[in-house]
Design a protein that fits this description.
About 65% of the residues lie in helices and about 0% in strands. The protein is mainly α. It folds into 2 domains: about 35 residues, no CATH class; about 140 residues, no CATH class. Helix 1 packs across helix 2 and helix 5 runs parallel beside helix 8. The chain is elongated, with a radius of gyration of 24 Å.
């Protein structure tokens, strides 16, 4: 085979490789945005807003989250663990009646603990934990963000606490419950039912676990004494 023919074959091979690479890049450009938007839902819109409408910058951030955390595999909870966490969430709801701020802080800490148990970065790395959760629980992660913000209000420098009223605390707790339900569900993947939906309990231990899933709205009134 002559040298000229070898060079020609090398050039043709290089052109084919470059053409294939261009097609891949083009394909990613067409589907990357819609793909990320479908995956992240409201989190996509929130990230775009944080980047002042710059969709390319927002998509770079979201794509980086997927690259870092997309391969994470959640460790399943066994029945006893799910029951224990469900009981603790019920206790948080009951505590809200007398101590709303403390209850919200407890909810924030409980979600961080459950997320760490499921295999996410621990609560001491909140931002990283939140980013990982956003990849796998995008529909409900903002509830955790809100409850964390409210729980932390006033803890750094003592400011902001007075401005957080009971209604805001209640809304934060209700919003965070959807992610808690996701993380403690026996089903893997995304949340299978809207937050606040009353699910038909199964027999045995699942019945008591359903207590944390029924519609709930804490009020500033003490329960009737028996």
């Amino acid at each position: 085979m002559s040298t000229g023919l070898i060079i020609l074959l090398i050039v043709i091979a290089a052109v084919v490789v470059l053409g294939a690479a261009a097609l891949i890049v083009r394909g990613r450009g067409r589907s990357g945005g819609p793909g990320l938007k479908r995956r992240f839902g409201p989190e996509y819109e929130r990230t775009v807003a944080l980047h002042d409408g710059d969709t390319k910058a927002a998509e770079r951030e979201l794509a980086e989250r997927v690259e870092r955390h997309g391969d994470l595999r959640e460790r399943p909870l066994d029945g006893a663990e799910r029951q224990r966490y469900a009981d603790r969430w019920t206790a948080v709801q009951e505590h809200f009646v007398d101590s709303p701020r403390e209850a919200v802080a407890e909810a924030d800490a409980l979600i961080a603990e459950v997320a760490a148990i499921r295999g996410y970065p621990d609560g001491g790395r909140y931002e990283e934990q939140l980013a990982a959760l956003s990849v796998h629980h995008a529909e409900h992660v903002d509830g955790y963000r809100q409850v964390h913000r409210v729980a932390r209000a006033g803890t750094d420098g003592g400011t902001g606490t007075a401005g957080t009223g009971t209604e805001e605390l209640r809304a934060a707790l209700l919003g965070a419950r959807a992610l808690f339900d996701d993380l403690t569900s026996a089903e893997s993947g995304r949340h299978r039912a809207p937050a606040g939906t009353d699910r038909t309990p199964a027999t045995g231990g699942a019945h008591s676990h359903a207590r944390s899933h029924v519609p709930w709205a804490p009020h500033r009134s003490r329960p009737k004494e028996s």
